[in-house]
Amino acid sequence: MFPIFLLLPISIIMKKTSDQDIIHAIDCGNYMRYHSFNGIKYKSDRFFQGSSQFIDYNNKIEIIQIKETLDQDIFQTQRQGFNFFYQLPLNMNSSEIQNFILMLDFAELQYSNSNERIFEVYLGNKLIIANLDIYKEVGRETALTIEIHFQIQGQEAFYKDELLLGAINKKNELIIRLKAIKNQASIAGIILKFGGKQNNQSDVEERKIRRNPIKGIDGLKKLSDESLKIVEQEVKENQKDRDQNEDQEDKRIQIMEIKLLEFSKRLMTLIIQTPLGILLGSSFLLICLITLWELRENRKQENKNIGNIKDIKQD
């Protein structure tokens, strides 16, 4: 049995719908029109694309009686293929959200065991029915109708609040695709109809907000992590450059101080031999001491400013 969670809000029913609000009713595999028991006017098979073929079980020697339906002809003609699709014109372009119901008819008239015919049904690129085994669901020669409830707003279709990519093409056509897994996919009938009351605008806005929330959060988290790494790397590089500059500045000042002291010693040795030299030497020494003191004070002020900047950045 195909996974039930893929069919919510899909319901399996054994009845037909009225002719009211029907957009398309197609008798798949039938080249003639058909009027159903409850008055639905089915069109001949049309709007199909891909590799597929008509199958008419009415031409078989054995008379087949389909259970759970009054419309034998709908289920005894089918379209089968390995990968084909229908393009149903919508003939509408409203900005308001509209509910729709897609009814798909199936019947297994060829195989007498489960796991003989298995296929999938897509709306656009979205898998809606997975691993459908008609015989496993209802047995042989029994009608199976599956309802799919979805919404359309403008050029976008939604199923269970999820955007159906590729479900509506540029020609404003609904794309229904059948893909075989084992033997050929098969379909007997298609009905597309309006699904009743429209959702209000708040529902539309909520859907837009809820669309792919996990992906959005993951994307933001990834972006935040990458940004944080970049910032941390920049801080490390700036700190490294600052430390290197500080070390170079310290070395430069130390070299200047050493050279100045050596020069002062040599000069003092030369000028202390005369009274005038002693006076000049004392004055020069005083100037040197004042200069050294100013250099140290400037250095202290620079260190203090750098410390304040670091504290501000850390805050």
From TrEMBL:
**Annotated Gene Ontology cellular component terms:** endoplasmic reticulum membrane
The segment(s) forming the Malectin domain are: 23-190
GO MF annotation list: carbohydrate binding
Q: Which UniProt keywords apply?
A: Carbohydrate metabolism, Endoplasmic reticulum, Glycoprotein, Membrane, Signal, Transmembrane, Transmembrane helix
What is any Pfam family matched here? Malectin
Membrane topology reported for the UniProt record: Single-pass type I membrane protein
Question: Where in the cell is the protein located?
Answer: Endoplasmic reticulum membrane
Fetch the InterPro entries from UniProt.
Malectin_dom (IPR021720), MLEC (IPR039155)
Regions that span the bilayer? 276-295
- Check the UniProt entry and state the signal peptide residues, or none: 1-19
User: Into which family does the record put it?
Assistant: Belongs to the malectin family.
What name does the UniProt record give this protein? Malectin domain-containing protein
